[in-house]
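W.,

You were right to be curious about this one. When I first looked at the sequence I had no strong expectations either way, so I just let the prediction run and decided to look at it fresh. Below is the sequence, 236 residues in total, followed by the output.
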Amino acid sequence: MEYGSAGLSAFYGSPVGQVARRVIQRRLREAWPDVRGTRLLGYGFAVPFLRGFAAEADMVAALMPEQIGAVAWPSGSALSVVAQEDALPFPDALFDRVLVVHGLENAESLRPLMRQLWRVLAPSGKLMIVAPNRTSLWAQVERSPFAHGRPFSRSQLASLLRDTLYAAERWDHALLMPPLKSRRFLGRGVSWEKIGRRVWPALAGVHIVEATKSLYALSPPKPVKQEQPVLASARG
């Protein structure tokens, strides 16, 4: 399966994808229990996870890079756009929170993307990244979307954040259950997560890291000439 927007939508609509979404969403909610009054950007393919925040945030936007493609988000208060990863169509410091899911592993060039996310993040804002763990089964099984693109070790993510002027503040992980399709197995997904967090945390399917702009950043990235984004209907 090709994991563009259609493949990712199909995965998160499947039984195993629904369980994966729930266990990742639980970790995101623990990190961000209250997003009232914030402006939130989801980058990559974050739509399945933005739904849990959309009713609270003042503004929610879903941005998908061209290599993933557009998907309409059926919410009257949200905006869904497609743009180039090195020219995000937003003004500086617009967002209080930025959530990146299926964004880093599919990026054509990591550093320009990270600097663009830095640019649109408010000075006191928070960046949350969900990225595939290179040592996990989820990164090895072809039918898993986390097996496509570039997986990461924790040290690689830490270096990327440091080198692009972020300070990592909170580390977590999710998807401790094996990527099996059995309905009987999936019915115990939450139990597997609890067991895995104690017994095999290094094999988690994804890293979750929260970061802020580094206080040692000397200057913001230079503005990039922005092209008109391709809009996907936000009303279904």
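Here's what jumped out at me. The chain is about 30% helix and 25% strand. And, maybe more interesting for your project: The first strand starts at residue 39 and ends at 44.

Coffee later to discuss?

I.
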